[in-house]
Amino acid sequence: MLGAASDKIIIGYDLGNVFSQISYSYLSQDSEVETLSCVAGEEHYNIPTVLCKRQGTGQWFFGREALRFSEEYPQEAILVENLVELAAAGEQVPIDGENYEPVALLTLFMKRSLGLLSLVSAPERIVAMMITSRKLDSLLIQVLNQTVTGLGLGYTRVYYQSYAESFYDYMLYQPRDLWTFQTVLFDYREDGIYSMRMECNKRTTPVVAYVHQRIYPFCGESCLPDISGLEEGRLAQLDQELLQVVRQECEKGTVSSVYLIGEGFAGEWMPQSLQYLCKGRRVFQGVNLYSKGAVYCLLDKHFGSKAGKEHVFLGGDKLKYNIGMKVLRQGEESYYALLDAGGNWYDTEYSCEFYVRKASYIQLTITPLIAGGVTQATLSLGELPQGQKSEEEFGYCEFSRIRMRLYLEGEKLLCAEMEDMGFGEIRAATQLTWRQRITCGDGRAEETVDAAAGSAQSGAEVLVCVGDYAREPYVLPKLGVRVYCMEELCYCLKENAFLLDCSVMNDELLDFIRKDCGLPGLAQALHPLARRQEAFSDFVAQILSYVGLYDSETVLQVEETLKAGSGLSDYEKMKLQTDHLAEQKRYEEALKSYDRLLARIRENQEMEVPALQALTADILHNKGVIYARQMLYGQAAEYCYQAWKTSGEQQAYFADYLAARRMQLPERDYVALVAECPEQYRASLELERSLEVTEQTWRDTPEYKRLAQLRARRAGGEMSEYCEETERILQALKSDYRKRSDGKRVSRESLA
Question: What pTM was computed for the model?
């Protein structure tokens, strides 16, 4: 078969330790697959995988020329055999007084052998090459990657696969009646007879094909198939031994066809074995099945075939598991597929980005395609930072953008690499990276963490990114915050809802959503709302609901906040925002925010004095409440007193002032203080009654009874139990403090 000089060509390269082969096809659906011959006009397909250096010169020979030169000039020849084994071993090879890298020697052999293709096509027309070998492991894959790089094939796509898969691909392009049932291949090599038995599970969709492999010891003769020098008795013995091998394999099921691969099968020394094999079966002999199968695989990749679409091969070098994880996609829980079974494990790789909320670990779901139960594998993220406190930043960010890369280092060894990408300009990316190995099928993980991380305490909510990550940011009006994606936008809208107004609804934001984030449908739905100021809360809620970063309850709270803030001044909105910090027990942030707000109010010349006084009094009172909750009762009393004076002596503020002094002062000093304020006598009585009720309520709580039991244990000398229980209580209190949850609104709350 000859093609035009401009025809693209694909090749299958059978790389063996003893000999190699090259098959090829022009890239067309009706093109035939041919195998290169070392001798023009003859079927000498095997290229010995050897090199030979002429001593004292830079002259190298390969293949048959190398063997011939070593035979004719043994004193000048330095023969290098087993190139694949040498490359896998990785040790330098001493040749003619110099040390050579074994990968470089293998690269030289492949480059010289590929030069034979010049007889059928120019090297630059090679568009794809499939290298097939007996067994592919991670070490050989590394060797092949280095070798391919050294070949300098330009834009040629290079793939790898095992002999078993080449056998499968070869059969896909054979008539269906040859593989209606099982197909058996016998490969005669120096170390024995390799068998492959292909069967298809037709109960699955697609049909799953397996190749069962085994090696049978076979002490044949090196002269086979030439039998001229062997006695009839020895020939009969070899035939009988081969018959036992083929019987063992063919009796495992109904066999449609048999392939005898190797030059050793070419003679007439096995009549009994052939007679057995030919009963009800088609039998074929040849030497170039693997290289042809590699070409058929490339044809199937390019053009596709009906058989290829209906079948999937699961050999030893195939990923036999579907790997994914449960995610929230626009607020709805769904399964997110990461890696699909059926691909070569060494070619399998997937990268993605997603968001996690308060992350400590991620769980992958590993589902076997053949047998076994579904397992969960844990990827630990440790404790991600949630933002930094500063005078300018607002609070913490509970979200992190994670970049994850999954690949395999073996048939079952999954490797996950993860990197913290931060959260835009809201929380800068850290240098934290994680790398873990997971053995698929048993859920066990071999972990290698490249950054210090705490122990996992809770699982993470994994959120799929909605839309694209923009190259240029959008700057939110008034806030001045730059956002690059919908998730960052939603975070800013939610966290700053107290400060938002209708200026958010503008054409620039709609363009950002449509063009930069790639969400024209959402932009179109928001367009009519952006033209109506009364639809402001609906506008923001629709964005939050579409992205799904927050649950429906949180979206509803944001809506209520926006409605409540309608008509409020910027100062009032800032106070509501700071009140929210206090509710979350983020006291230091709240105090600093209150101080900044007080400074701005004092500088204001536009608001009426009564409004300024009321707002200032409320802020001072709230500062007093925060100090009281921190048990700083002296400071709490001072701020409540200032609030009372600023407000025009509102009674509620003075009552909280008395409560703070009651907690701060000795009883005698407190009584003296009350005596100086006879007009507040009734307020002091109300405070005492409130304290009595509070104390009694406390005595009825399980916590009080638990502490009473602790005191009893200490008094009884049970110090070990006392210390253990005390430690548990302290840890629970610390955990509760860290969570900073369940805070109550402080703007109108009394201290008692």
Answer: 0.63
